[in-house]
Each structure stands twice: as structure tokens, then as C-alpha cells.
Amino acid sequence: MKDIQNQKDERNIPINKVGVKNLEYPIMLEDREKGKQNSVAKVSMFVELPHNYRGTHMSRFVEILNLFHRENIIDNLENLLLEMKEKLQAKVAYIELEFPYFIQKKAPVSSQSSLMSYQCSFRAKYSEEFVFEMSVKVPLHTLCPCSKEISEFGAHNQRAYVNASIIFDDFIWLEELIEIVEETGSSQLYSLLKREDEKYVTEKAYKNPKFVEDVVRDISEKLDKDMRIVSYKIEADSIESIHNHNAFAMVKSKRI
Amino acid sequence: MKDIQNQKDERNIPINKVGVKNLEYPIMLEDREKGKQNSVAKVSMFVELPHNYRGTHMSRFVEILNLFHRENIIDNLENLLLEMKEKLQAKVAYIELEFPYFIQKKAPVSSQSSLMSYQCSFRAKYSEEFVFEMSVKVPLHTLCPCSKEISEFGAHNQRAYVNASIIFDDFIWLEELIEIVEETGSSQLYSLLKREDEKYVTEKAYKNPKFVEDVVRDISEKLDKDMRIVSYKIEADSIESIHNHNAFAMVKSKRI
Amino acid sequence: MKDIQNQKDERNIPINKVGVKNLEYPIMLEDREKGKQNSVAKVSMFVELPHNYRGTHMSRFVEILNLFHRENIIDNLENLLLEMKEKLQAKVAYIELEFPYFIQKKAPVSSQSSLMSYQCSFRAKYSEEFVFEMSVKVPLHTLCPCSKEISEFGAHNQRAYVNASIIFDDFIWLEELIEIVEETGSSQLYSLLKREDEKYVTEKAYKNPKFVEDVVRDISEKLDKDMRIVSYKIEADSIESIHNHNAFAMVKSKRI
Amino acid sequence: MKDIQNQKDERNIPINKVGVKNLEYPIMLEDREKGKQNSVAKVSMFVELPHNYRGTHMSRFVEILNLFHRENIIDNLENLLLEMKEKLQAKVAYIELEFPYFIQKKAPVSSQSSLMSYQCSFRAKYSEEFVFEMSVKVPLHTLCPCSKEISEFGAHNQRAYVNASIIFDDFIWLEELIEIVEETGSSQLYSLLKREDEKYVTEKAYKNPKFVEDVVRDISEKLDKDMRIVSYKIEADSIESIHNHNAFAMVKSKRI
Asked: CA-to-CA distance for D30 and D122, rounded, in angstroms?
């Protein structure tokens, strides 16, 4: 059968990225406490296509994913990208995986333990060398400093989400990045809080008001001091409880 | 050309609903203050298909929508459904429209005015008679009664969304239903609040704590007393600021 | 500390459903081939609240989920609902879980094997007795009978999604329900197809045109004949390739 | 009342973007045929915050939007950004608007006219000068060249979406950019097609097979020749009808 994809293309236009998007796949992650953790990922895989080929071979992306699934996709991202470069004759290969990650977390007073989920992602690229970016989406409690200051009692507060993406030199756990972010809210969030915990969390947040601007700056300060981190981008998106729109702040490392 | 849809079907299975889904269309709504308001709707239209026809004629749904668009779709829902019944030889016809609706709203102290958007929907059905259901999705501020009671200062609060659907005998404005819902939160939400408004809203909410259970019961009480209303369903979904999951409550009228 | 939720409520309004929504949680499923399969679920849990209580105890829902997680949530849904009824003093308890499920699937000619994901859900309720509903969302290929008939060559086709929900007496595997649905499209979908498979799938679909009306009727016929099934609802939603809206059909069993 | 936002910040970290996100707002657009068109936009507005201020003034964003709404937001984006720079004492201001846009479109044979909706967006930035980016999301029909070549009859095809973003020197209508994209599919999409149109569209697509790679290259060629265009990014995302994942291709102009 004719290989249409291999036809010569005369338009002289290289394609920056071509591949498959939104494949769902089971994965196995490194877990700092338990050793291993099962999850499910949305996967996208792309290569750069030289100007002279009409198309890429989409089925090879899935074959390569299957091949590495037998061992462990996450532990072998670098080899997986090298395989993509070879099998698809490409100068650049990309893979992106988005997945929920679970951490056992203790309530602050009762110490009752429960699972919290965090949406995380890995993005890797191999052009001349292997580049790896790790992202976490962490829910936080933010209590408004202005509302507290001007009001006789109470202060509006809400759930906010921080997206933190980092490129690092030395290994960093998902758990570490999540902890760095969680420390910067007015309070952390929990799946399970008993009454004594709810009292503690409420009072802690009231004593610790934070704008989205404060949150991204506090994380930025911490990441600037961490010598393992090469560059970062931090976004805070706060589901304002007195408005029907969100408050947003973003800081990028100068090194990006 | 052969009319495949008109072929006789031998499977002896009537189809409850068949038609088009997620057509986007500009609409013109009745506005209590301004007379008219432009919006954009997601539209779905279905009919019941008798067991003996193989398929419905999908293009006729869009033709009928175009026809009524020349005058006004929303003002003529009953005639539109009758036209669907006739042109598609159906015993039952359905239309659903989801759209944002805007209300000019004044801040509580500064009286500064701004536009708030609300996701609304109309669902109509014509079997033996015309049945019309109106729904609004209203953002509210809920401040937790338990957190306030047990804490020395502060109380967690958050944005919540109420979905209220009603069937009525006598005309009710979208604005009226939205107002009924907005009165039941710890506070309303606003697009624009100056500092004096933020102080007012913060203190009002602190004095007025509400569980999702309180919100749906308060709305239920009001709707039970409103003689125009035949039946209702109320859902409150609170984006808890101390948890990564939502709190939810739902009440249906006994008459549904 | 005061138990606000336990306060007496004077509004005399029972709440149909109250609880937690969109908790994310790891689960372990029965797999027909491999015995067990890990996945991740979105979980909602509700109870009916009697008129005389002000609020439910939200943290108990999460405690009960944690308790059953130690063994296996999915294998113990009935006991989990009984525990909810007891611990929350409720007449009715509900749980809903949505999760991706993976099946190893062979390409039709090359027999190359790959993983396909399906969005599935379980909904269970315990009032007087345990009621369990199982749903699968299955992607299908639909090729338009009308387009084929009237055109000299080719026929428009597209991806469609079937939602099939069933209540059954005797155990049915997720795999069985998925297979029943997959047989009714113009073709099935696959994660991995080599050229010989793509030829087979293309030609099979062309010989086997199907409207959404045909798909829901064909599934309905099969389910009507399956004595294990008590009731069902089938929806087909086709991402029409020549329109920017979807074609939709729905059939409910007469017994629902 | 104290102005907390104006407090001096000692962390020495400028914030790249801070502001409001996902405000919904009615807008009025230039329409090539009708002169004017009403729509509804999701609006985000950000400024850069100097390192020495603790926070921005979120309510001023909404005040500025209200102010320009009285005349016309879209016609005055440059002045709106200048106002943001001044009122918020910022070196850089950003605004983003996403909205549906409607075009009256004739079926290819019957000439029956109907409305098609397209998701569009405007992104503008004012740092040293005004920079404006326009994007359209256009649905296309793509018929697979490989499937056609290797099969005796038929070919799989599907709906695909092209995202095309451009920065231009000389004015370009949304309609023009949409037309450029629509010409590059195997066929265009329509809201309303009669039988003779469906025959035409089916046969045209079969004679005109396109990979996502072909689509982005064809658009790239056209945009390269258009002297009004400074830079572009084109993405094609095809809802493959034989797979449960999408095929994707992206080309950026060398000048970006």
C-alpha cells in the first residue's frame, strides 16, 4: 500500500509540531511516601516535521507509548523522546502528560489523615538536549487583606488555584513543589477537617491575609532561593467570593 | 434523490428525542429595565420520532430556527414548537436555549453601577400543551455558620452557585427569579465594589451566615409562597474555601 | 464546641440531597481480563436531610469514603451506603463515581494491541433497597446513510459518543456493555491502527452506514433481548463533520 | 479607610501580570456585511505591577471597562489600554476578549442562507506601543488522504478545528481570516444543507483529501503571501473519526 505520508512535499514549510493529542493512558508515578502511585494521564506527543515530508506517521506515536508502557513511561521520558526522534526521523520531539496526583494529608489539629488530589503535569522536549518541565495546580485559601483591614469583623476569603511550573537541575519531588505553594496561602486546603481543625484553619487564615499578589511573590521568593530551580512561572487565580470574576496574578522568573 | 430518512423502519422502536444539539445563535430577550437585550444562545431542538420512520430531517430544525429568527425566537417559542410538530410530523417537540443575561446592578453603598452576567436557560416542550421551564444560575456569597460559631474571629466563606428552575402559571421576569435567589446568600456578588462597599459586604456576610442547606430552604420558602409558581428545583453548589471539593444541596417542590 | 448542624430547623423543609461533590479519589475496579484495574474517580455523596435538622455533617462523608477505601470502595457500595444512612441518620443515601476505564483492544487486521479509554460511571442509591446504575460513554464511527446514498463517491462520517446507562438484575461487566455499544456503529474506534487496519475500518464503515437514530435503536434492540437488564437510557451524540452542531438521539426503555 | 494595596512592598519582585479574569460583558463588533454585530465576551484585563506596590486596584479595571462600554470597547482598545496604564500607574497593560461571531453563509448549491458561529478573540497589549492580535477558531471538514488512497471505497473524515492567530499592519476583517481558513479544508462546514448541498459537500471533500499537516501548510502559504500580516500561529486539531484521540499540527511564522 502506498505511503502517502512519505510523499515529497513541495510547499517548503516545516511544521513546528505534529502528532497526537488527548490520548488517555494509565501511568505509574514515583511517590515520596509510598514508592509508587497509579494514576491516569492525558497524553500528547508531537515532533517537528521537516519541510520535505507530506505527513508524519501518527500510529508510531501510539506504538512508542505502548512500548514504554510495558516498563514505565514516566521513568523513561528521555529515552521515549529519543525513540520518537529516531522512529519519526525528527529533529525535535515533545511529550506532555497531565494527571491527578494524590497525597495523604493530616488535618492540623485532629491529625486525621485523608487523600488530597492535585492536578499535575510533565512536559518534556528533546531537541539538542532533554528539557523537562514540571507543573502543579494547588488549591489555596486566600483571605483578603483589604477586606480585613476596612471591616469591623470578618473578611472575605475564597478558594484560589496556583499553577506553578518549574524547570530544575536537581531532582525535586511533586510533593516538595506542592508544599512550597501550600505554605504561601492564608491557609491550606484539606479533604477532611473535624470541628477543631475548622476552628484552627479559620483563625489561621484570619491572622494571615493574602492578596494573589502576595501569594505569587512569596512563592517567587522561595523558588529564587532554591538552587535546584533553573526557571519558573507562577500563576494565582482566585475565585473571588464577592465578585463573579477572578483575581489573577502571574510572575515569571527573570531567567525564563 | 432518495429520501433515506423517510424509509420505513421495522425495528418497532419509537425514539424519545432526536434532533440537533449545540447550535449557537443570536437571540433577543425581554429586559425588564431596557425593554430588549441582545444575547447569544446555545440551542438544542428535538422531536419524538414515531417507530415507523427511519430518521428525522435534521435540516428542517435549522430552517425553522432561521424562520423564527427573522421575528423573534424567544417571543414565539410556542409557535416555533407547533411548527416543529407540523413540519417534522411529530407528537412532541422540544427546544432548549442557554444564554448569558446581563443586569445593571448598583453597589450597596457607593451606588456605583455595573453589569453582572447570569447564565440562564429556557426549556420548552409541546406535547398536548405548551410547557415552559425557566432556569437561572446565580452566584452567591456563603459564610459558614459553623466556622463563625466555633472560631474566635473570622469565618470561612466562598462563592457558591445556585441553579433555580421553575415552571410558572403567571409571567415571572428573569430579574425577579434572580433577585429571589440573591436575597438568600450571606451576601450578593457584584462586578464593581469600592472600598466602602467591600466593608459593607464583608460585615453583612459575617452577620448573616448560611449553609447551602439554609440557602435552598430559604429559596424554597419564598417560592412556596409565590402563587405564580407551579413547581421548582433548587440546587446550591458551594466552592468550599477550606476544602478541594464542593458542598451541595438540592430541594425539589413537592408538586414536581 | 457547639454543633450548629444539629440545631433544630423550623422551616419544615426536608432536603432531597445534601453532601459533597467532586471529590477526587483513587479506586480499584474489577477487570474482566486482568482481575483488577486502578483508576481515579470523581466522587459525589449525598443524603436526604430530614426537615428538623439544620445541616448535615460534611466531614462524615469523607470519613466514610476513607474507611471503605482501605478495603475497596467499588466492591462495597451497598455497605458504604448503609454506613452513610446510619452515621448521617438519613433515610436515603446516594453515591456517584465517574472514572476512566481501560480495555486492551486488538486492531482488526494487524491484531496489534493497544489501550482504549472509556469514561464510565456508577450511581448507587439506598432508600428501601440498594439500586445500582452503570453507565458507559463509548466513542463510535458513524457514516451517514443519506450522504452515501445521494453521493457518487464518499460519504461524510465522524466520531460520535454513545452514553448508555443500565440498571440490571444479574451482573454485567463494563466490558460487556461497551461491546454491545461498539457493535452498533458504522465502525469501532481504536487507539492504534496500521495501514491494513485503516483500509479495513474505512471500507467496513462505508458498507455499514448508520444514523444516530439507527445506533440508539440497534442498542435498544439488543438490551431489550438481554434478560439481565431491568431498564436503560441510550443517548447518541454525533460530532457532525459537515455541520458545526451535533446530531442527537435518545431512547429510554419503556420500563424506566 | 486605609489603602492596603498602596502599601510599600519590600520583596522587590515586580509582577508580570495582575488583574481580573473571566468577566462576562456585552460587546459591539464591526460586521463587514451589516455594519454592526452584538456579541458577548469573556474579558480579562491585566497590568504589570512595579516591585514597590503591594497590590493593584482591582475595581479600577471594571470602572475602565464600564467607561468604555458607554461608547464602544472594541473600537477603543488602544485608548482603553492607555487609560489602564494611567489609572493603574503601570508600564504595561493587557486586555483579552473571547466571543462568538456570526456570519451569514450560503449553502453551496441551494444557496439557502444560515448563520454560522465562530469563536474569536482579540488580545491587545500596550507597553511602548499598541500591539493587537486577532484569533479565529474555524471548524473544517478533513478527509484523510491515506484512508482514501488505500481503501477501495470511502475515506474516513471528521470535524477539525483550526485556531489561527495573526498580528497585522493593515486592517483585516474577521470575515477575511475565517475565509482564508475555510478554503483550506476538504470542505467547509454549514449550519444548513439541503440534500443537493450534502451531495456536493460529500463529493467535494472526497476529491479534496487533507491531512492536518496540509491544512496548516496551506494556510501558512496564504498568510505568507498576504503583505498585511506581520506574524501568525496556526493550529489544526482534528477529531479523528477512527481514533479516540485527536491529530494535531501547528505552524508559526518565522517572524514571530
From this structure: 13
Task: Say what the pTM is.
Answer: 0.96
Q: What angle do CA B179, D28, D20 make, to 5 degrees?
A: 60
| Chain A: residue whose CA lies nearest to C196 | A1
CB pairs under 8 A between C and D: 126
Chains B, C: CB contacts within 8 A come to 138
Positions of chain A with pLDDT under 50: 256
CA distance C98 to A72: 26
DSSP per residue, A164-205: EEEEESS---HHHHHHHHHTTSSB---S---HHHHHHHHHHH
Out of D149, D244, D250, the one facing A4 most closely (by C-beta) is D149
pLDDT tens-digit map of B43-85: 999 999 999 999 999 999 999 999 999 989 999 999 999 999 9
Who contacts B10 (Cβ-Cβ below 8 Å, separation ≥6)? none
| 3-state helix/strand/coil string of chain B | CCCHHHCECCCCCCEEEEEEEEEEEEEEEEECCCEEEEEEEEEEEEEEECCCECCCCHHHHHHHHHHHHHCCCHHHHHHHHHHHHHHCCCCCEEEEEEEEEEEEEECCCCCCEEEEEEEEEEEEEECCCEEEEEEEEEEEEEECHHHHHHCCCCCCEEEEEEEEEEEECCCCCHHHHHHHHHCCCCECCCCCCCHHHHHHHHHHHHCCCCCHHHHHHHHHHHHHHCCCEEEEEEEEEECCCCCCCEEEEEEECCCC
Give the separation between CA B10 and CA B16, rounded to whole angstroms. 17
For residue D59, list chain B residues with Cβ-Cβ distance below 8 A: 192-194
**B150 and A117 in contact by Cβ < 8 A?**
no
A102 touches chain B (CB under 8 A): no
Place of cell 476538504: D186
Contact call for residues D206 and D149 (beta carbons, < 8 A): no
Question: Is the Cβ–Cβ distance between A232 and A253 less than 8 Å?
Answer: yes
Select from C9, C49, C213 the residue whose CB has the most chain B CBs within 10 Å, as the one to mutate to test that interface: C213
Mutation to test the A interface, candidates C63, C64, C114, most A Cβ within 10 Å: C114
Identify the bridge partners of residue C248 per DSSP, sorted by sequence position. B19, C237
Low-confidence ranges of chain D (pLDDT < 50): 256
A50 lies within 8 A of chain C by CB:
no
Q: Rounded CA gap, C202 and C187, in Å?
A: 8
Minimal Cα distance from C239: which residue of D?
A: D159
Q: Does A155 touch chain D (CB under 8 A)?
A: no
**Three-state DSSP class for D130?**
strand
Outline where chain C has alpha helix (H).
58-70, 77-87, 145-150, 174-182, 195-207, 212-225
A85 inside 8 A of chain B by CB: no
All residues of chain C having their beta carbon less than 8 Å from the beta carbon of residue D193 are 242-243
Using CA atoms, how far apart are residues A178 and A136, in angstroms rounded to an integer? 7
Q: Please, are residues B157 and B145 in contact by the beta-carbon 8 Å criterion?
A: no
Q: Where are the alpha helices (DSSP H) in D55-211?
A: 58-70, 77-87, 145-150, 174-182, 195-207
| Best of D18, D162, D234, D243 to mutate (most A CBs within 10 Å, chain A) | D18
pLDDT digits (tens, 9 = 90+) for C10-45: 899 999 999 999 999 999 999 999 999 999 999 999
CB contact under 8 A, D196 and B1: yes
Task: Look at residue C210 and give its three-state secondary structure.
Answer: coil
**ipTM (interface predicted TM):** 0.94
pLDDT score at B255: 58
For chain C, give the longest Cα–Cα distance: 78
pLDDT at C157 exceeding the cut of 90: yes
